[in-house]
Amino acid sequence: MESVQIPPLGGVADELAAVPRLRELADRLEDSAVERALAQGWSWTQIAEALAVTRQAVHKKHLHRVAQADIPLRRRNG
Question: How many angstroms separate the first and last alpha carbons of the chain?
Answer without folding.
Answer: 73
